[in-house]
Amino acid sequence: MAIGNLVPWRWGNLRGFDDNRSFDDFRAEMDSLHRSIDRLFTDAWGGNLAPSLLSENWAASKLTPRLDVVDDDKAFRVSVELPGMTDKDVAITVDDRTLTIRGEKKEEKEQKDKDVFRRERAYGSFRRALELPDNVDAAKIEAKFKDGVLTIDLPKTKEAQARVKQIPVKAA
User: Fold this and answer.
1) I need a surface site. Which of 74, 75, 81, 88 has the fewest CB within 10 A?
2) Which helix (H) or strand (E) element contains residue 53?
């Protein structure tokens, strides 16, 4: 067996290795392989092969923080994921039935090795606005920030809480 038959891009090929191929043919085949691999990665990651995908997206203002809203008998609870941020980076306002959450991400990473020095910075801001239902008591809204999660409690008015009626479920 010729050593050329061990080359992976030749596996499964019915013709044997051609010792008479020119270097240009070989280079063209390698370029084609390189383009195929580049296309594979571009399709998988949308062309963003940065070392820190989160940093790049924040810097380009592409990210909007995830937001969950839970409704129970007494209040609505809004949870916003803000990894890497602190309570000082976030501002919350209520204006005429609109709850607005604003924040700014400031991230700086520095790596020092023997022969490598790299510093990455990412800055970006976000704004989320939610329309509040009529049954929210805006005067009693509270917000807490812990472990990268902002939790906002939106208590319902006493009238709204009184209208809630639990219906018992009976076995058939």
Assistant:
1) 88
2) helix 53-59
pLDDT of amino acid 18: 55
Closest CA to 66 of 103, 96, 91, 97: 103
Contact 136, 99 (CB under 8 A): no
pTM over 0.70: no
**CA dist., res. 167 & res. 172, Å (int):** 15
Separation of alpha carbons 124 and 20, rounded Å: 57
For the chain (172 residues), the mean pLDDT of every run of 10, in chain order, is 56 53 77 84 60 46 77 90 88 90 79 72 80 88 93 89 81 83
**What does the DSSP 8-state code read for residue 136?**
B
Encoded tokens for 139: 């005067």
Q: Is 47 helix (H, G, I), strand (E, B) or coil?
A: coil
